[in-house]
Design a protein that fits this description.
GO molecular function: channel activity
CATH architecture: Up-down Bundle
Largest sheet: none
Shape: globular
InterPro entries: Aquaporin-like, Aquaporin_transptr, MIP, MIP_CS
CATH class: Mainly Alpha
CATH topology: Glycerol uptake facilitator protein
CATH superfamily: Glycerol uptake facilitator protein
Protein name: Aquaporin Z
Order of helices and strands: HHHHHHHHHHH
Main location: membrane
Keywords: Membrane, Transmembrane, Transmembrane helix, Transport
């Protein structure tokens, strides 16, 4: 005991056999704890909220500009945009947005994602309404830009059930697709298997994959904001509730499965991913 007390006072290691830490290891541990405490403080710094909301607005604007823009440009160019390109582009945009400004506000870009993070206790419920409002405004602004540039063509990229697809079939597909999306997001953001920037690749790849096989059925929206923008600006409300009920049901299912796989959320790594750190 005297040896350990002397070692701690002198700043030297009492030795590996004693289970002590070297000076460098203690310094690294203090740095890690200090950094995490700073990040937690930033999570709850209300003065930075405008940056988070702006990042959600901008990110959703760019996502919907690409996602809805594929249908618009395809109509304008008389079929020059292939379905493959139209469904891969949103996945690549989400990947870019997460890498570009995910550290600012979490890059949710989707009401279902915001609700999923809140249900997992990774995101404050008080911020959910602001995030969803910013996402809806961003999606609407993107469609207003598309309409101003090209007119009300291609239904402004509206997501609607495919020919011969019933509303319940489209709703079920949207629920399943969103379940997979939220499972990917919550899994790669958790402290159990946080993969850092590689999560952007996982999420972007999932969005592209979901679109490749399911876009003819429902449009593979997985995002109420993405559907809301074209519906509001273009007036295409066909089966709109499919794209609200389906994604929200899928998000709830994903949160339940995340609890079964990893227990309750709320760890530091997940909060960092969900809320961002504006000073980084």
């Amino acid at each position: 005991m005297a040896q350990q007390k002397s070692a701690l006072q002198s700043g030297s290691s009492p030795g590996a056999a004693q289970g002590g830490l070297s000076v460098g290891e203690r310094a690294a541990a203090r740095s890690f704890i200090t950094r995490d405490l700073d990040l937690v403080a930033q999570f709850y710094d209300s003065s930075q909220e405008w940056r988070r909301l702006f990042s959600e607005l901008l990110g959703t604007f760019l996502l919907v500009l690409v996602a809805a823009g594929g249908g618009v440009v395809n109509a304008v160019s008389h079929g020059q945009i292939s379905r493959t390109a139209a469904v891969i582009a949103p996945g690549l945009m989400v990947l870019a947005m997460i890498l570009f400004m995910g550290a600012v506000g979490g890059a949710h870009l989707n009401p279902a994602v915001s609700l999923g993070f809140a249900l997992r206790r990774d995101f404050p419920w008080g911020r959910v309404p602001g995030y969803i409002a910013a996402q809806l405004v961003g999606a609407t602004a993107a469609c207003l830009v598309l309409r101003a540039m090209f007119g009300n063509v291609g239904q402004l990229g509206a997501t609607v059930p495919g020919p011969g697809i019933s509303m319940w079939q489209a709703t079920l597909i949207e629920a399943l697709l969103t379940f997979g999306l939220l499972s990917t997001i919550l899994g790669t953001a958790s402290g159990a298997q946080n993969v850092g920037t590689l999560s952007a690749i996982a999420v972007g790849a999932y969005i592209a994959l979901a679109g490749l096989w399911a876009s003819p059925i429902s449009g593979a929206s997985m995002n109420p904001a993405r559907t809301f923008g074209p519906a509001l600006v273009g007036g295409t409300w066909t089966d709109f509730w499919t794209y609200v009920v389906g994604p929200l049901a899928g998000a709830l299912f994903a949160v339940g499965v995340a609890w079964l796989l990893r227990g309750s959320g709320g760890d530091v790594a997940a909060r960092r991913a969900a809320q961002g750190a504006t000073a980084t």
